[in-house]
Amino acid sequence: MLNLIPFFDSIDSERYCVVKLSEGFPTYSPGDDIDIFCYEPDRIAKKILEWANQHIKKDLEIKVISQAEYNHVTIDFMDGRAIHLRFDIYGQLPLYKKVLIKPALFENIIDHSQPVCKKIDNINFCVNIPDLIDDMLLRYIEFIEWYNIRPDKIKHLDYIMDKIDDEKKIRFLNKLHHYTAIPVYQDLQDSKLKPPKRGLSFLKILKRYRADRKQVHKG
Amino acid sequence: MLKQIDQFLDKIKFFLERTTPLGILAQKRRQKRGTIRPTEMRVEENGSPPLPQPKFESPEVKQLFSRMFEAETSRLDYIIIWGHGIEYKHEIVNMIRSHKDFKIIKIICHYPKSIRSLVKTVYSYDYAPLSHLKPKTKYLMKTPKEVLFIFFENMNPDEDYFGNGIFRHFESATLKQFKEEIRDKFNERLDGKRTENHVIHASDNQLQTHKILQYLGFEGVSAFRGKNRVFELPFHARNCSKFLIKNVPVDSLVCAIGYGIQSNFSKIKIIPIKQSPHYIALAGNSDHYQEYKKKVCCTTHYSIEAFKKLAYNFNYLTEPYSTNYIVVRPLDNDKFQIIDGLHRAAILCYKNQMQLTVVICEQD
Question: In Å, how far is B241's CA from the nearest CA of chain A?
């Protein structure tokens, strides 16, 4: 188990937030991932590597994938072939296909993030996490994006149902409607669905007219 | 009255050209011949004449040229040390290296076949016409056929307009000031005054750097702008986007050492670190290293004294170089070829380290 506290101490002065933070944090299960939203992913990645220099000696390999075009860095701590812990560092919102999202949501989430402080073994440390409404929004988007492929994503909906009340519901829906939209057909370029026919042919209209007239006569 | 009739007939002609098949055919033929009437006469087509577009050579060049309007401030520049200034190359390179806004990316020794063609190439992309530059560059024709290109990232270009009339141009104020410092220091002096026989020339904009890189056989500045910004990588490894950091045995590391004559240094042999001139120099015999240093243009390498001093105080992956890993690429025979960090690897090997933490770079 890697000690995450020194890492979060080292990025204390950075603008970032950890999204969908697990309740047991800073403990984690092998295979878990930590998603970080920040303005400078490369800087945070360097901080992770500085912190990781202490851990490489313990036969952990580190895989780094830098996707400059998406402003995204993935750092995997590998235990043999299995991922022990993954850091996903985003400099912009991840790509979602099923929901259209205004890019400004990303900055809004970081700017509204709040520190959450914990005490583990008499050591205090703080982690920035999103505001509850933003957290619910991200989880909702995640659920919409993946529910048909990953049934376990229902946990996000359960979380929302657990946390939401009438007042939060209004704020949540307002923010959801402000920042997101359902894509129209033109946006679904990959979709194989065909748009519905808008007009009926003259013969169909005639058929329908005759059928209606028959019904009227019978009636 | 006749004028009005002429105008009216012209209008009919325009109308027929646009609406009848024969007229359209005639218009297409004129387009093919290049005798089509100027756009401003054909107001009925586009409403108003389009704004004149600047003529860029290609979309890539256009993109590079228009970078001056982007929020990203850093740009790629180069300095060329002419043949008569080569004796000061160490001092000049050290001055660039110690400048807070410059970060050296690549140093290239170049032996042109003809100094005239090199001068022409360098000044072809200058803001002033070549005819104005001819008398100014006459002194270069007598300089030795050996030049040094230093490409670096200018992190604070501070661009502004300089000069008057046809010489008005856009330039980095930081680089302009720096090149004047170098010229003040190293230009030939006559009666205590600095001559205008400049030992160096520097780029005015990134387009010039792009063109010089193409002249040297690179694809352009894109070759130096990599996908990765997490690691400090040499320019030839900048296309990597996937990396693996792991401990590898020192014995599995090999290095590519060039040999051959100085101006044709293209032959490479792969040898273990312990056979490299760097390791042998640390072990006590510095002749190999000195010879190698001379061949590879020397500026990217330390002097033997500086190298030994570095070895004495060296701590790998400590602040502020905690992510400056030795970069390797995998070979077929379970070996790894060092592509950056041979000095560091030689030091660690000399200090009897059995395992080294390296970054294995997977080319895209």
Answer: 5
Question: Is the confidence metric ipTM above 0.90 for this complex?
Answer: no
Query: Which residues does chain B have within 8 Å of residue A65's beta carbon, measured at their own beta carbons?
Result: 241-243
Which residues of chain A neighbour B330 with C-beta distances below 8 Å? none
Q: Which amino acid is at B35?
A: T
In the predicted model, what is the mean pLDDT of residues B15-35? 71
Is there a single domain that holds both residue A105 and residue A27? yes
Cβ separation A49–B357 shorter than 8 A = no
- Where does a domain end: A111, A130, A149? A130
Q: Flag if B230 and A46 touch (Cβ within 8 Å).
A: yes
Q: Scan for tokens 């900048």, then name that residue.
A: B238
Its domain, for residue A151, covers 131-219
CA distance B359 to chain A (A): 9
State whether A15 and A102 are in the same domain: yes
B227 pLDDT band, cuts 50/70/90, is low
Same domain, A110 and A11: yes
User: How many Cα atoms within 13 Å fall on the side-chain side of residue B296?
Assistant: 21
Answering whether pTM is above 0.90, one says no
Domain end marker among A114, A130, A146: A130
Per-residue tokens: B307? 């190298």
Residues A162 and A125 reside in one and the same domain: no
Reading the block at residue A61, the tokens are 């390999």
One domain for residues A71 and A174: no
Task: Give the residue-averaged pLDDT of A164-169.
Answer: 90
Q: What is the pLDDT of residue B5?
A: 87
**Across B47-52, average pLDDT:** 47
